[in-house]
Structure formats: structure tokens, C-alpha cells
Write a structure and sequence with these properties.
This protein is α/β, with parallel strands linked by helices. Helix content is 40%, strand content 21%.
């Protein structure tokens, strides 16, 4: 088993506005649909790696009067999550800084423990799933969903986008993560000791003019202005000129009228 790290250690994306903008787009419907039929009013839910809290707030609405406790390793991001809960006038959301490897809750505290796009950034996703299992009651659910960079595909093809993906995968693995996490979710769940596991998959697809502009613009900005740019340059994986060239490839992709991009995700529902 690899050495444990804090949940935010080596977070490749950083918290630039281009990153948070993509996180705010996420909802329970488009990012946790596989879990929603298992939620019931009154449930107590833990949301791990909540980011700016849009999924958190959706979960809170679904389980009210139950409570959602959301944790993230980045304290400043929790202010965004609190603002989202306040905007919706939700009183059943509690936020706190937390480490997925050492969750500050007693055994069996929650009915559901949920994590979206967290496992891919961890050095030890198996240990994280085991810790989420610990804080769930017997008969509860550990739910996790993660993307898979190796499974992404797009049109029109462009060697520069292939280069972007390879660069991302190298950088993520250098920091101890696994960018092709989606295909490994069942493997990690079994290694964490779960016996009852339901596996599914779903995707995001960006194809309309607005979607292409948004998705391509996000990645162009991440490549030149976010923590990703800082990381790959500092580790000698790419130059500033390389990143500018790849960012332009994303803008070109977004401008193509017949372009589309698919992001696959692996999903697990694990009974505790």
C-alpha cells in the first residue's frame, strides 16, 4: 500500500477560478445520479471533498430534514460552499475542514458517505474508501464517482489534444494520483474490503456551442493560469510555450461546429 497523504496533497488542479467554475457546474443530477435513488428524507450524509458545495446543497435538499456534513481539505473553498448553502437558505448543511484518511467522526455516524472526483487525486484511494466505510453505519452506503482520462474521447481529432491528455496523465501520476480512476473503482472497493458493490458508469458530453465554449475555455485557462500550469512547469514536464500551444488547441476544438467531447465516469455503491 502506498504512503498516505492528506486528501489535498498534490491536488493537481489547484483552486484557480477556472477550476472552481467547473466544480460549480456540478449538480447531484449530473454528477451523482447513480446515488439519488438511495437517498431518503432524514438521512445523514457525509460529502467528502465537497469543493464549492453545489452537489452538497443538492444532497441536503434531497435528505432534509436530515443533515449533510461536508468536508474539504482546502479551508478557503468551504467559504464558497457555505455561501451556496446560505443562498439556498439551507440549515441542514455543516461544513468543516477534513482529511479523508482521518475523518473526525465516530464509527457508524452516517447513513451515506459520498465522494465525487476525489479518488483520482489520492495516493491511497483504498485507505480513503476504508475510512469512509468506518464512519458509515452497518447497512449504509459508500458512494464514489470518478472520471477516467484514458477513456475520454473527442472529435475532431487533434494531436495536440492527445498531447494534452498524456501531459495530464504524467503530471497526475507524478503527484501520486491516478487519472484513469474510473476503471479502477471496483478494484479499489474490493481492496477496501467491501463485499456488496454495485458498479455503474455515466458520462458528461459537451457538444452544443455553449458547452464547447465553456469546456474548451476552461481547459485553455487551466493550462495557462491555474495550479496545473505551475505544477507541470515546476516539474519540467512542459514549458510555458507548450502550454500556450495546447491552450490554443482547446480553443480551436471549441470553435469547431461539429466538435464534441465525452468524459466517462466509473461509479460504485458499496454496502457497509
Amino acid at each position: 500500500m502506498r504512503p498516505r497523504q492528506a486528501a489535498s496533497a498534490g491536488y493537481l488542479h489547484g483552486h484557480h477560478e477556472s477550476v472552481l467554475r467547473s466544480h460549480r457546474w456540478r449538480t447531484a443530477e449530473n454528477s451523482a445520479g447513480y446515488l439519488l435513488p438511495r437517498l431518503a428524507p432524514g438521512a445523514r450524509v457525509l460529502d467528502v471533498g465537497c469543493g464549492p458545495g453545489t452537489i452538497t446543497a443538492d444532497l441536503a435538499a434531497l435528505v432534509a430534514p436530515g443533515q449533510v456534513v461536508a468536508v474539504d481539505a482546502a479551508a478557503h473553498v468551504l467559504a464558497d460552499a457555505q455561501a451556496e448553502a446560505d443562498r439556498r437558505e439551507q440549515r441542514n448543511v455543516r461544513l468543516q475542514v477534513g482529511d479523508v484518511y482521518r475523518l473526525g467522526f465516530r464509527d457508524g455516524t452516517f447513513d451515506v458517505a459520498h465522494a465525487h472526483q476525489v479518488m483520482q487525486h489520492l495516493a491511497d484511494p483504498v485507505a480513503a474508501l476504508a475510512e469512509m466505510r468506518r464512519v458509515c453505519r452497518p447497512g449504509g452506503i459508500v458512494a464514489a464517482r470518478d472520471g477516467d482520462y484514458g477513456g475520454m474521447f473527442w472529435f475532431p481529432d487533434d494531436p495536440a489534444l492527445q498531447e494534452w491528455r498524456a501531459l495530464y496523465q504524467r503530471a497526475a501520476r507524478l503527484l501520486g494520483g491516478e487519472p484513469d480512476a474510473g476503471r479502477r473503482m471496483l478494484h479499489w472497493a474490493r481492496a477496501a474490503g467491501f463485499a456488496q458493490i454495485e458498479v455503474s458508469a455515466s458520462s458528461w458530453c459537451f457538444s452544443t456551442a455553449d458547452e464547447r465554449s465553456w469546456w474548451g475555455g476552461l481547459w485553455a485557462e487551466r493550462l495557462t493560469e491555474s495550479g496545473f500550469a505551475d505544477q507541470v512547469i515546476s516539474h519540467g514536464l512542459a514549458s510555458r510555450a507548450d502550454l500556450e500551444r495546447l491552450a490554443q488547441a482547446w480553443r480551436s476544438w471549441a470553435s469547431a461546429q461539429d466538435a464534441w467531447f465525452l468524459v466517462p465516469h466509473g461509479e460504485i455503491l458499496c454496502r457497509t
